[in-house]
Amino acid sequence: MFQPLRRPLAIALTAALGVLTIAPLVHANPQSSMREERAKRRAELGKEKPADAQAEKKPPQYPNATRQSPETKTSPKLIKQLQAMQAAYEKDDWAGVISKADEIGASSIANAYEKSFSYSMAGNAAANQNDQAKAAAYFSKAVQANGLDNDSHFSTMYNLAIIQYGEEKYADALVTMDRFLAESKSDKPEQLAFRAGLLANLNRNDEAAAIYKDLIAKNPTDKRLLMNGVATLQGAEKFDEANKLLEQAYQRGMLTEARELRALYIGYMNAQRWKDAQKTIEDGLAKGTLQPGPDLARDYQVLAQTAYQDDNMPLAIEMYKRAAPMATDGEAYLNLAKVLDMNGKKADAKAAAQKALDKGVKKPEDAKRILAR
User: Fold this and answer.
1) How many helices and strands (H and E) does the chain possess?
2) In the CATH scheme, what is the code of domain 187-288?
3) How far, in Å, CA of 285 to CA of 274, rounded?
4) One fold for both 187-288 and 292-373?
5) Please, what is the end-to-end C-alpha distance for the chain in angstroms?
6) Backbone phi and psi for residue 40, each to the nearest 5 degrees, phi listed first
7) Using CA atoms, how far apart are residues 57 and 110, in angstroms rounded to an integer?
8) Class in CATH terms, 29-50+70-184
9) Is the pTM of this model over 0.90?
C-alpha cells in the first residue's frame, strides 16, 4: 500500500525564496557638466555672447567643498586648437575631438584648465563612441590635471565613478567616490546611495546597510532608496530589519508593484510568518497588484508544503489547488494528488494525477501509481 512520506513533496523552500538585487541610484549625465563649460569657452573664443548676469550668479553645486576652485581661463596661444576641438565636437567628430584633446594635453604651454577641459571633452567623445574604458581614462586625466572649476571638476569625478561602476570596477569606483565625497562634502542622497551600492557590490553589506538606513530615515517616501536598503539588509542577513522596512512601506501604500509585494511576502515566508504571507498574496491578487503566473505558483507551493508539514491538510490542498493551474509543469498537480490520496479523496486524487501527467512531471510513475489504485 502506498504511504506518502512526511517530508517536503516536490519543492525545496530555498528554491522559491530569494533576496532582492541592488540598483544603485545613478542619475549623472556625462554630458551635463560639459554643456555649461562649452558655452563658457565659446564665449571666450568669440563664438557667442557671455552668459547673462543671472546665469553668472548661479549658486555653486558644492558650496561646502574643501577644494579651492581654480581660475579657469584660456591662453591666446591655444585658442585655434581649442576652437578646432570645439568645432569637431559640434560636428560629432568624436575622433577629431580626441585627437585635438591629446594635442592640447601634451602641449607644454597648456595650463591646467586647458588640459582638464580638453580631457573632459575627450571623455565625452569617447563615451559617445561607446568606449567606456577610454572615457574613464580621459575623465581620470581631467581630474588629475585639476584645472576645472569646482562644479565641473566634481561632476567629472562623479561621472568617472559611474563609468567605473558600469565597467564593474567597483573598488576603483569606491576610491573615486570616497575622494569625491571627502572633497565636495556633498550630502545629496543619490550620491550617498551610489556609494552604498558600491559597498554592497563589494560585499560590504553592513556598511552599505547603515548608509541606506540613514538615508531612508531622512527620505521615507523614496521607494528606490527603500528597496535598495532592503536588498542590502538582506545581503547582510538582517532579514528582520529588511522585513520591518517593507512592512512599514506596505502600510504606507508604497508597495505598488508585483516585485515589491513579492519581496514582502517572501520575507514573511523566510521568517516563517505563513499567515502574513498568505494574506499579503491574497490582498495583492484582490487589488490586481499580483497576477497569476509561475512565480506565484511556486510561492503558493511553498505555503502548501508548509501547511502539509504542519498537518494542516485542508490548507495544503487549497494552496496546491491555487498553484497548480498557473504552474509551468505538473508538479503542483502531482503534489495535490498525493495529499488528496492521503486524505482518502481518491476520485479527486486521480483527477489531479491525470492533470499532472498532462502538464508533465519528472516522475510520471508516481502519478500513474495513483491512477492505478
Assistant:
1) 20, 0
2) 1.25.40.10
3) 17
4) yes
5) 10
6) -65, -40
7) 28
8) mainly alpha
9) no
- Residue 173 contacts residue 196 (beta carbons within 8 Å): no
CATH 1.10.290.10 fits 292-373, yes or no: no
Output the DSSP codes for 91-148.
Answer: TT-HHHHHHHHHHHHH-TT--HHHHHHHHHHHHHHHHHTT-HHHHHHHHHHHHHHT-S
Domain boundaries, the chain: 29-50+70-184, 187-288, 292-373
Please report, in tens digits, the pLDDT of each residue of the chain (373 residues total): 223 323 333 332 333 334 444 444 444 444 444 455 555 555 545 554 444 434 456 799 999 999 999 988 888 889 899 999 999 999 999 999 999 999 999 999 999 999 999 999 999 999 999 999 999 999 999 999 999 999 999 999 999 999 999 999 999 999 999 999 999 999 999 999 999 999 999 999 999 999 999 999 999 999 999 999 999 998 888 999 999 999 999 999 999 999 999 999 999 998 889 999 999 999 999 999 999 999 999 999 999 999 999 899 999 999 999 999 999 999 999 999 999 999 999 999 999 999 999 999 999 999 999 999 8
CA 16 – CA 269 distance, rounded (Å): 10
Q: In the 3-class helix/strand/coil scheme, how is 217-270 assigned residue by residue?
A: HHCCCCHHHHHHHHHHHHHCCCHHHHHHHHHHHHHCCCCCCHHHHHHHHHHHHH
Closest by CA position to 101, among listed 34, 28, 187, 175: 34
Query: How far is Cα of residue 55 from the mean position of the Cα atoms in its chain?
Result: 35
Whole-angstrom distance, CA of residue 104 vs CA of residue 307: 73
Q: Which three cell numbers stand for residue 207?
A: 556598511
Q: Which residue has the cell 494574506?
A: 279
Sign of CA dihedral 187, 134, 168, 140: negative
